[in-house]
Each structure stands twice: as C-alpha cells, then as structure tokens.
Design a protein that fits this description.
alpha/beta, 4 strands, 8 helices
Length: 253
C-alpha cells in the first residue's frame, strides 16, 4: 500500500485498498463516535478523535486490518442543551452502522469490529451488531462494554500516576488526557474548570439532560489530565481490545 505505513482506510485509494484485501487484510475497525459538547475546554469532536486513535492503534496491533473512518454523529440527545451538539436517533445510528458493515462486507472484509467511544452509542451497537452478523458474510465483533471502558480509563490514569478516579467519565481528567495525547492544541487549557464530582444518576442524566447534572458540561476535574495519562489510557484500552478481537476472529474461522 502507498502512504505507506498508514492503516487509516480513508488515506488510501481504492486500488490500494483492493491490493490490501488481496494481500491478506481481513479486518476493518470501525469506531462509533459523536459530535457533542465536552465542556468549555474540549472540542465537540472529542469522542471521534478518541475513536480515530483507538481504531488506528488496534489496526496496527492486528497487523492485517484497516481503521475505517469513525462513524459520527451518535446518540447525544442528553447533551442538546449545549450548542454544537449534533444528535441522531438510535434507529438512525443503527441503520448507519448496518450500511457501514454491509459496504465493508461487500468489498471483501472478513471481520468488522465495532468500537463505541461515546456512552450513548454502546446500547445501539450491542443491539444491532448481532442482527447485522446474521445478515452479512463477515463476522461482526462488538467491543462495547461501557463499564469496562471506563474502568480501563481509570486504570490508565492510575498507571500514569494520576491519583484521581472518575465514577462516570465525560470531559474530565480521562478525556482531557486523551485529547492532550492526541492533539494537545485542541485543549483550551485556560478554560479547565471542575464539573460535577462524585456519583451520577444515569437515569436522571438521560431523562433530564446533562445540564441537570453539570452546568458546564463536565464531570470531574479536567485539570488532573496529562498527556502521559492519555497515552496510558489509549494503550490500556487498545491492548485488551486487540487481544479480544484476535480471539473472536479465531473463533469465527
């Protein structure tokens, strides 16, 4: 393939992608992100930045995979009190995921991996993945356990020496750390402000909206985030995800 070591599908031409498929590339990694508020200090594209980077790292580890463009927007209705958020119904998101999988299957990918990076997308991914798997030839592998995802983020913070744990993660230390690691210029460091700290009622968050929990759209303390912690978080997630994908692919053969 040209451009030459990149595993990002979007950076290649169609003949290069065909050649990769002919040469043994079997897997497409698809992150499912969002366009939604992440406080006054992070861009609305945060979940998509994380998805792009995780998909790239996972594809690198697999060695025979390409990272497809991250799906966006996602299911972000509970953030609509904050300007810039773009949301779609879960049915629309599931239809979009199905179309992604069908397209990649038609071109010869044997495995499609779905990795949500926004909390509101985990349930739709888990709902639609088995349906799609029954409809196409490719195996559909969903890595979509929200509790596990947040646990891995907190483990990454701790590994980097950040003594701060977030019971629910949104625009606080962990996500700020990820953006610092991926593109630190996108973090408005002069706007780092503490949001709601402590436990969060998920039912209230979804029913009343995020602004009922946090006036500034932040959970936790983003000042605790560091680029080193962001790197640790990304590695802490990418490594077991890649291992699980390997296991799932072996089982599908």
């Amino acid at each position: 393939m040209s451009s030459r070591t990149s595993v990002r599908l979007a950076e290649h031409t169609w003949p290069e992608i065909k050649a990769a498929l002919d040469d043994g590339t079997t897997t497409a990694v698809v992150a499912v992100g969002s366009v939604e508020q992440h406080g006054p200090h992070l861009p609305v594209i945060m979940d998509t930045l994380a998805g792009d980077e995780l998909a790239r790292r996972i594809a690198d580890r697999l060695g025979d995979a390409l990272a497809a463009p991250t799906i966006r927007p996602g299911c972000s209705g509970h953030h609509m009190a904050f300007p810039g958020t773009i949301t779609i119904p879960s049915e629309t998101l599931m239809s979009l995921i199905r179309s992604y999988c069908e397209s990649l299957d038609e071109h010869g990918f044997e495995h499609v991996v779905l990795i949500p990076t926004h909390g509101g997308n985990f349930a739709p991914v888990n709902t639609v993945a088995p349906e799609i798997a029954r409809e196409i030839d490719a195996s559909v592998i969903a890595i979509a356990d929200l509790d596990e995802n947040m646990r891995l983020m907190n483990e990454g913070l701790a590994e980097a020496g950040v003594e701060y744990e977030e019971p629910v993660i949104h625009a606080g230390a962990a996500e700020t750390a990820i953006v610092l690691a991926v593109n630190e210029g996108l973090v408005r460091t002069d706007e780092l402000t503490v949001g709601h700290e402590g436990e969060v009622s998920a039912s209230r968050l979804l029913s009343e909206g995020f602004d009922a929990i946090s006036e500034n759209g932040v959970l936790g303390d983003p000042r605790e985030g560091t680029a080193e912690a962001g790197e640790a978080i990304l590695e802490r997630i990418a490594t077991p995800y890649a291992e699980r994908i390997e296991t799932e692919r072996d089982a599908a053969r």
